[in-house]
Amino acid sequence: MISAAHAPSGRPHQIATRIVFFVMGFGVAAWAPLIPFVKARAGIGDDILGLLLLSLGAGSMLTMPLAGALAGRFGCRLVIVLAAVLLCITLPLLATLSSLAGLVPVLLLFGAGVGAADVAGNIQAIIVERDSGRPMMSGFHGLFSLGGIAGAGGVSLLLRAGASPSGAIWIAIAVIALATAVAAPRLLTHGLDKDGVVFAVPRGIVLLIGALCFIVFLAEGAVLDWSGVFLTAVRGVAASDAGLGYAAFALTMTVSRLIGDGIVARLGGARTILLGGICAAAGFMVTWVPDRHAAFLGFALVGVGCANIVPILFSSVGRQTVMPQNVAVAAITTLGYAGILVGPAGIGIVAQWSSLEIAFLLLAALLLVVGVSGRGFARRQ
């Protein structure tokens, strides 16, 4: 546990934490516009590209338990700075490499940086929020979403303006390096625990939190990977407008997170999870209405509903005593990433057996389970 002598205090630590979350979102999203260029340079098809992209998720999930242990023993600052260095080293390579033999290990390292930053950043956020005595986690995660929009949008604009992939990514690296340098002096030199445990099987309340994170991330991954397919194949939307479904989801999620701390303070964590689960479930059910505008509205509602559930779940980790907290953060983050990785494939299997509408209906049912289950542990904050 954290002693009073080591507790963070004041606005500087909060600002540094917000910067870290922005950098986390910015760094991983800056990679997205490079994917078509990687596919073209390597001369690979969609199937090989899909397998290649699994390297990123594998690197993240393999690193998360280690990142939790390192943050507990050596502090959040060291892990976050090392993660930022990994991003700055690997992104230029991803912008230039053309061989699978080179891309696979670099993507593993890039994923390792993403995973380490995710775990250590959330540990920092739990400590800072707990010290502040008020809800802050939704705002932190809102900065992650905002960073994602800035990273993907900024690199895309540079590419459209004529910059080379390498040139655009060096500008992104400058942003990551500068922002990390600004935040570093106020990042914590301690973590949640110092027991040095690298991995422990989730149990009790931690297993429940991880399972709920898995479902929410599964839903988010479904919108990312399947909203465009649903809009074009089922609702007849033009391919050029297929991305608007995810854009509606991302926009409403970002806005809802940025105002989410006030919502949690007023309603409490339990009620916010309940209402969020109902809203997200309703969003997937609205997509059943045979109208393209209803589909856009449905994906927007999913963004509103999912927005503040995961931040509340992470805050809950800081209150449980079943497992060492740095290990618990790593465990639920890993389970969440598993939802992103496994979810799209699972949705595809269900859609193949029945339809995308049925797959979305199953997601709605799972999100209702999240809403009801959240009342079992999330207390008013």
Automatic annotation (TrEMBL):
<keyword id="KW-1133">Transmembrane helix</keyword>
<feature type="transmembrane region" description="Helical">
    <location>
        <begin position="167"/>
        <end position="188"/>
    </location>
</feature>
<feature type="transmembrane region" description="Helical">
    <location>
        <begin position="78"/>
        <end position="100"/>
    </location>
</feature>
<feature type="transmembrane region" description="Helical">
    <location>
        <begin position="295"/>
        <end position="315"/>
    </location>
</feature>
<feature type="transmembrane region" description="Helical">
    <location>
        <begin position="140"/>
        <end position="161"/>
    </location>
</feature>
<dbReference type="InterPro" id="IPR011701">
    <property type="entry name" value="MFS"/>
</dbReference>
<keyword id="KW-0472">Membrane</keyword>
<feature type="transmembrane region" description="Helical">
    <location>
        <begin position="106"/>
        <end position="128"/>
    </location>
</feature>
<dbReference type="InterPro" id="IPR051788">
    <property type="entry name" value="MFS_Transporter"/>
</dbReference>
<dbReference type="GO" id="GO:0016020">
    <property type="term" value="C:membrane"/>
</dbReference>
<dbReference type="GO" id="GO:0022857">
    <property type="term" value="F:transmembrane transporter activity"/>
</dbReference>
<feature type="transmembrane region" description="Helical">
    <location>
        <begin position="200"/>
        <end position="223"/>
    </location>
</feature>
<dbReference type="InterPro" id="IPR036259">
    <property type="entry name" value="MFS_trans_sf"/>
</dbReference>
<keyword id="KW-0812">Transmembrane</keyword>
<feature type="transmembrane region" description="Helical">
    <location>
        <begin position="243"/>
        <end position="260"/>
    </location>
</feature>
<feature type="transmembrane region" description="Helical">
    <location>
        <begin position="358"/>
        <end position="378"/>
    </location>
</feature>
<feature type="transmembrane region" description="Helical">
    <location>
        <begin position="327"/>
        <end position="352"/>
    </location>
</feature>
<feature type="transmembrane region" description="Helical">
    <location>
        <begin position="15"/>
        <end position="36"/>
    </location>
</feature>
<feature type="transmembrane region" description="Helical">
    <location>
        <begin position="272"/>
        <end position="289"/>
    </location>
</feature>
<feature type="transmembrane region" description="Helical">
    <location>
        <begin position="48"/>
        <end position="71"/>
    </location>
</feature>
<dbReference type="Pfam" id="PF07690">
    <property type="entry name" value="MFS_1"/>
</dbReference>
<protein>
    <submittedName>
        <fullName>MFS transporter</fullName>
    </submittedName>
</protein>
